[in-house]
Structure formats: structure tokens, C-alpha cells
Write a structure and sequence with these properties.
about 375 residues; cell projection; 3 domains; alpha+beta; disordered N terminus; signal; cilium; 25 strands; structural molecule activity; flagellum
Length: about 375
């Protein structure tokens, strides 16, 4: 390989590294007003194989069932003891995407709210889905897909896999109403950062103004950027198509050390630094073993065989070396030093907490 080829490969590697650090604007920010909306509903699942609600404990299931029959002109006798082993009352929820139009379908999740053991094999009857404003935005109906199941033996033994009391219906709801958005209103749009950061906001403003001209983008604060936008809707779509593909280098996050005390997981951020400090770590291991001895008497001595207890106590002190952190120690040096002493996750938690208390850990220590 000649010198020119090596130089070209080096330039390509540097370019790829620079591109890897940059992210598309659509991945780090969202457009204000363009959002999903939560929907919720209530309904009945029928066709269950005897795993429905126990009506004596869930009277609302019977009430809902009677109301449904009344709409078809069927009246249940008052005081009738209705047993609905194949019916379950359920809650329904879904996310209505932005720009969803009437006639389009969305996925829904169905969950039992009574004491139904399983919704497997059931069908959801037509049920309205409402938004927070009380309006109906979709109508749900369809056959459930349940990933869990349970089986029970005659002796009371039972096995359950996953959660059989909840399921999904892909495309199970039809959109009936459009949610208005502010996408086509005004001559500006606001970009909200997924992770507010002043440096990232400045980089977004610089990138947009370099591409489209000065003054097009202005930072409102560390989490929002306002950009000028055309009034025509079709032009606005083309305009945002260009904006969302602009590559921006996000600002580095605040130095953090995350400790999960339940699982022992420890995550150390990139910008964590340690001021000069010396750390030593070791543990004392005490081992106690029982090694009984059998005492056998001599022949014709008239004695009896006896077991004599004997204990052994050993104490081992690990001799781990002391290591020292210099000023501005990086993440790689921290990991290397900790690995040298063979610290377990629980030991590393103690070391990091001690460094924080000593004022040597320049990072936010977060325990979850």
C-alpha cells in the first residue's frame, strides 16, 4: 500500500469517526405540537373457554352485559342469576399517532380488570376509545392475541407462562376523529430537544443558520429552538424534511455515575474525573471447618467408640495493593485501577461512594 492510499484511508477513518459522533436532528429533537395522544376505553371480551369473570365478585361485568343486550331489545329478568363464565370486562388503551386520519387503524392493548384467569381465545366487542377531552377518537373490535397461558391440574397444581390476562389486537381500532395540531399554524416552528442541553441547542442553531442563512433559527432556552417556516403546508413538509436530516453534534452529558443497588449494575459516564486520591481495598476471610475424629478403644479394654469434635479456624487477609489516582484521572484509568485490585461490583460501590464523600469524585453519584 502506497503513501497516498494510506493517507486516503486515514482521511476516510477520520471522516467516519466525525460522522459517528454527529446525530440527525430528528433523533435528538421533536417538533412542538406533533405528538401522540393516549386513548382509553372499556368493553367486553367474549368467547372465553370458561376463564371469564366470576360474576358474583365482579357485578359490573353483569351490568355491562345487560346494558349491551338491552340495546338489541333483549331484557334480562330482574333478579336473574346470570353466570357469565365466557365473558370478561376489560380496559382498552392505545396511542393515537400524530396526523392519524379517519379510516386508518392502530394497535390496541386489552387488559382484564376483573378476575378473569385468561383472555386467550377471546374476541373484543365493539368499544369506543376516548381521549382526555371525552371525545371518541377510535372504535375498537377484534380477536385478541395473547402471549401467555396457564394450565391447572386436578390436584391443584398450576403453571402460568407470561401474563394470560392481557393481550393485543394489531390494527384493532379504527380512527374516527383527527386530532388537531399546530403544525400548519404560524410562520415558525419550535424544536424541543429530547435531552435539554445548552451546547446542543447552540450547535442546532449554528447548523441551521449555516445551511439556510443567518437568523433562521434562534435558541429559546437550553431545550427549545425556534425556526422560521413557510406558511404553505406542502412547502413546510419539504422544509422539515431538510431540517430533520441535518447532522448535529450533541453536547456531552453531565458527568454521572449510576449505581443500581438491587442488581449491582454500575455505569460510569464518559466525563467522570477523579481528583488525586489514594485507595486501598481488601477483605478478611474467616473459614471454619468441622473435622470430627473417631476415637476407637483398644481391644479388650472395655471402652466404647466415640466421636471427638475438632474445629479448624483459618483467617486469610487479602493483600491487595493500594492504588493512587492522579489529577484528572479518566474513565479508562479508573476501570484499570479497579480491575487490578479485583473489586466486585459491591466493593466498587463502596469505593465510589467513599471517593464522593472525600470530594475526589467529580461527578453526580446517583443510586437507583
Amino acid at each position: 500500500m502506497n503513501t497516498l492510499s494510506k493517507w486516503l484511508l486515514g482521511v476516510l477513518a477520520l471522516s467516519l469517526a466525525a460522522m459517528a459522533q454527529a446525530e440527525r436532528l430528528k433523533d435528538i429533537a421533536t417538533i412542538q405540537g406533533v405528538r401522540t395522544n393516549q386513548l382509553i376505553g372499556y368493553g367486553l371480551v367474549v368467547g372465553l373457554n370458561g376463564t371469564g369473570d366470576q360474576t358474583t365478585q365482579t357485578p359490573f361485568t353483569v351490568q355491562t352485559f345487560n346494558n349491551m343486550l338491552a340495546q338489541f331489545g333483549i331484557k334480562v329478568p330482574a333478579g336473574g342469576n346470570v353466570q357469565l363464565k365466557n365473558v370478561a370486562a376489560v380496559s382498552i388503551h392505545a396511542d393515537l399517532p400524530a396526523f392519524a386520519k379517519p379510516g386508518q387503524t392502530i394497535d390496541i392493548t386489552v387488559s382484564s380488570i376483573g378476575n378473569s384467569k385468561s383472555l386467550r381465545g377471546g374476541s373484543l366487542l365493539m368499544a369506543p376509545l376516548k381521549g382526555i377531552d371525552g371525545n371518541v377518537y377510535a372504535i375498537a373490535q377484534g380477536n385478541l392475541v395473547v402471549g401467555g397461558f396457564d394450565a391447572e391440574g386436578g390436584d391443584g397444581s398450576k403453571i402460568t407462562v407470561n401474563v394470560p390476562s392481557a393481550g393485543r389486537i394489531p390494527g384493532g381500532a379504527t380512527v374516527e376523529r383527527t386530532v388537531p395540531s399546530g403544525f400548519d399554524q404560524g410562520n415558525t416552528l419550535t424544536l424541543n430537544l429530547n435531552r435539554p442541553d445548552f451546547t446542543t441547542a447552540k450547535h442546532i442553531v449554528d447548523q441551521i443558520n449555516d445551511l439556510l442563512g443567518p437568523g433562521v433559527a434562534q435558541a429559546i432556552d437550553g431545550g427549545s429552538v425556534r425556526v422560521s417556516a413557510p406558511l404553505d403546508t406542502s412547502q413546510r413538509v419539504d422544509y422539515l424534511s431538510v431540517l430533520e436530516n441535518i447532522e448535529v453534534k450533541p453536547g456531552q452529558a453531565v458527568a454521572k455515575v449510576i449505581i443500581n443497588s438491587r442488581t449491582g449494575t454500575i455505569v460510569i459516564g464518559q466525563n467522570v474525573r477523579v481528583q488525586p486520591a489514594a485507595v486501598t481495598h481488601g477483605s478478611l476471610t474467616v473459614t471454619i471447618t468441622e473435622d470430627p475424629i473417631v476415637s476407637q478403644p483398644n481391644a479388650l479394654s472395655g471402652g466404647q467408640t466415640a466421636v471427638v469434635p475438632r474445629s479448624r479456624v483459618d483467617a486469610t487477609q487479602e493483600t491487595k495493593p493500594m492504588f493512587k489516582f492522579g489529577p484528572g484521572t479518566t474513565l479508562d484509568e479508573i476501570v484499570r485501577a479497579v480491575n487490578q485490585v479485583g473489586a466486585a461490583p459491591s466493593d466498587l460501590m463502596a469505593i465510589l461512594e467513599a471517593l464522593k464523600q472525600a470530594g475526589a469524585l467529580q461527578a453526580d453519584l446517583i443510586v437507583i
